[in-house]
């Protein structure tokens, strides 16, 4: 299937924002695609913004028998809406030109049966900086498929990015895969995105030291790259002093991966991305003692230092997502800010499954992320049968019933989040009234659309080089303090009048606040209490809460339509005067469609009607007034 560029102008989405209707009513369903407006991004699925609540399975878990017995049940218990799963080059093409789609078809059929979307990971030329997933007929013929060489001239465990034969073999295999997926999924839209390679780059050398590569390294840097980066012409050593080897490798790596992606997009044009093994400083990840390319991390990948080269050299890659395995707040949040660029939607394709990583889901959403995905969620040995990471599962249980609503609010720039680990036990954010309201009271349709001249086709930004400090600052507006509201979050319990917020023992508190209208807010979170007040006033002074509805969302019966809000009760008295409280649950409920019990439960199975009140992940809709 061929289509226009993955990034499109957003004129059709105005229908969505204006009336709260699915685009399916206006035009045939489209393949998933990425859109951009005012520096914010959305992944559109069936025409509406979609928030990926993902989990990546283990490297060797994408086999039919394991999927049914050990993978799908774990993902259901995790409350995900999307599974990340690998496709192995060595499995699909055991002989040149002969393809076996057994595993791929098992992924598609299983995901549909379990009502999940898929993001497929192409384990092709590179997997974690090595060539371990290339077929045997490639591995055993190095004279035809050359390996990368180190500075001593010895071959290493990587295919050379400078060898056309390697690229052509990968291109053909990936194009065949995408052709098959187009035949199988062009109408169902089970597959949301494709990852091209996995943490590409070289482990064992800073660059390829083959004869041809050495000769090219001594030549002038390509003029188009020099111009794009605003550099002066010269050799690689002159243009990139101190990082010449890695920059040279990044240029060739990005062009290789782009060629593979380009071939795939001609067959099936859905969003393509690359993940990246970051350059971790020892302070952020102490077990990596040598922060050097080709030793501490794969050289040439799209890490935080090589990102500008990749954004220019690989235009067929729609976004680059960082794999984050350091829970250090300054490093984690700094990387989120680096990759949240006007020309790069923020997406976390891998992160740690430990409890300390779970609050960063909220941090990512607060920076406009289209999704988040902990790694290693299956019962094939990484986790005991029946167990999933509790804190991550609690996040997804909370967000899962309103993922479409959150995605729409985020695309409109209406969400702010706070995590205790990054800012302490008492934090504040301010909301200004001078932006276009997203909704009318009790409706998720916009009262008026943004002007057409505010829309940006992200394809015009594909080759822009944006510094990290500029990321997310495309749509800064003048603040009107007169109608502003401050949302204060106090983490930890118990909270007592006149005392500072106690904080939680593990600093796991996290909160999400979304502006529905200048005076209306949607709040949800774990481990804290929320107070609203006017700037310069204490809570309760010259303001009042007109309504605080505690409730939950359920998916709409209409495809692509907004979730439906169900009120449980109206909060008042102690439940509003002392903050709107969101305790940390000790357990999370299983998906309503699953026969698996919640963690800590002894029973399971479907039930008629809504789950018990205490098991329902809730949010609160608040209407404020000033006097």
Please give a structural write-up.
The chain has helices at 13-19, 64-77, 89-92, 102-113, 136-139, 164-185, 211-217, 223-229, 236-239, 244-265, 307-313, 329-339, 360-366, 390-400, 403-411, 420-423, 574-577; strands at 33-37, 40-45, 48-50, 52-56, 82-88, 117-127, 147-149, 155-159, 191-198, 272-277, 319-324, 347-351, 371-374, 415-419, 426-431, 485-491, 510-517, 520-526, 528-533, 543-554, 564-570, 580-582, 619-626. The termini are far apart. α2 runs parallel beside α4 and α6 (164-185) runs parallel beside α10 (244-265). The protein has 627 residues and is α/β, with parallel strands linked by helices. The protein folds into two domains: 13-413, Glycosidases (TIM Barrel), CATH 3.20.20; 420-435 and 477-626, putative beta-Galactosidase from caulobacter crescentus (Chondroitinase Ac, Chain A, domain 3), CATH 2.60.220. Residues 583-615 are annotated as: Disordered. Residues 74-257 form the Glycoside hydrolase family 42 N-terminal domain. Residues 393-582 form the DUF5597 domain.
């Amino acid at each position: 299937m061929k289509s226009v560029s993955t990034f499109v102008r957003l004129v059709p989405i105005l229908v969505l924002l204006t009336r709260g209707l699915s685009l399916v009513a206006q035009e045939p369903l489209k393949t998933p695609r990425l859109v951009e407006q005012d520096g914010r991004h959305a992944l559109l699925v069936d025409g509406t913004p979609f928030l990926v609540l993902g989990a990546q399975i283990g490297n060797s878990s994408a086999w039919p028998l394991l999927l049914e017995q050990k993978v799908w049940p774990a993902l259901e218990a995790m409350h995900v809406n999307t599974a990340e799963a690998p496709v192995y080059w060595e499995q699909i093409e055991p002989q040149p030109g002969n393809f076996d789609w057994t595993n791929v078809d098992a992924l598609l059929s299983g995901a549909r049966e379990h009502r999940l979307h898929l993001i497929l990971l192409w384990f092709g030329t590179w997997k974690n900086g090595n060539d371990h997933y290339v077929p045997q007929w490639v591995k055993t013929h190095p004279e035809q498929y050359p390996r990368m060489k180190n500075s001593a001239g010895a071959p290493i465990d990587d295919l050379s990015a400078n060898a056309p034969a390697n690229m052509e073999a990968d291109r053909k295999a990936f194009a065949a895969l995408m052709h098959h997926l187009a035949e199988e999924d062009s109408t169902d839209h089970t597959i949301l995105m494709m990852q091209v390679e996995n943490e590409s780059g070289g482990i064992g050398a800073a660059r390829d030291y083959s004869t041809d590569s050495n000769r090219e390294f001594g030549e002038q840097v390509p003029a188009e790259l020099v111009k794009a980066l605003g550099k002066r012409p010269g050799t690689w050593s002159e243009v990139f002093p101190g990082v010449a080897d890695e920059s040279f490798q990044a240029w060739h790596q990005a062009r290789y991966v782009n060629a593979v992606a380009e071939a795939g997009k001609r067959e099936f044009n859905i969003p393509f991305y690359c993940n990246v093994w970051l350059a971790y400083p020892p302070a952020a990840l102490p077990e990596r003692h040598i922060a050097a390319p080709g030793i501490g991390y794969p050289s040439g990948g799209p890490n935080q230092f090589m990102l500008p080269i990749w954004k220019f050299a690989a235009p067929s890659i729609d976004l680059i997502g960082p794999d984050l395995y350091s829970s250090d707040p300054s490093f984690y949040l700094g990387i989120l800010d680096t990759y949240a660029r006007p020309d790069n939607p923020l997406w976390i394709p891998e992160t740690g499954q430990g409890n300390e990583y779970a609050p960063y889901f909220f941090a990512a959403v607060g920076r406009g992320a289209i999704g988040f995905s902990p790694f290693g969620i299956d019962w094939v040995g990484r986790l005991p049968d029946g167990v999933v990471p509790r804190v991550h599962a609690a996040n997804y249980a909370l967000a899962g019933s309103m993922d479409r609503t959150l995605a729409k609010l985020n695309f409109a720039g209406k969400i702010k989040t706070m995590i205790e680990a990054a800012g302490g036990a008492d934090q504040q954010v301010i909301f200004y009234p001078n932006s276009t309201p997203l909704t009318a009271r009790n409706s998720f349709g916009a009262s008026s659309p943004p002007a057409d001249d505010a829309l940006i086709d992200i394809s015009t930004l594909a080759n822009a080089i944006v510094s990290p400090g500029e990321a997310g600052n495309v749509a800064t507006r003048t603040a009107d303090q007169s109608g502003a509201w401050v949302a204060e979050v106090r983490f930890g319990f118990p909270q007592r009048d006149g005392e500072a917020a106690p904080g939680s023992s593990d600093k796991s508190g996290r909160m999400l606040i979304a502006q529905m209208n200048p005076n209306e807010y949607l709040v949800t979170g774990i481990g804290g209490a929320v107070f609203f007040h006017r700037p310069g006033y204490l809570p309760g002074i010259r303001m009042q809460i007109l309504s605080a509805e505690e409730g939950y969302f359920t998916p709409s019966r209409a495809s692509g339509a907004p979730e439906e809000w169900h009120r449980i009760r109206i909060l008042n008295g102690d439940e509003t005067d002392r903050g709107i409280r969101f305790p940390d649950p000790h357990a999370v409920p299983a998906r309503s469609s699953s026969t698996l019990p919640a963690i800590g439960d002894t029973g399971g199975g479907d039930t008629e009607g809504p789950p018990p009140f205490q098991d329902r992940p809730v949010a609160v809709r608040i209407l404020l007034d000033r006097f």
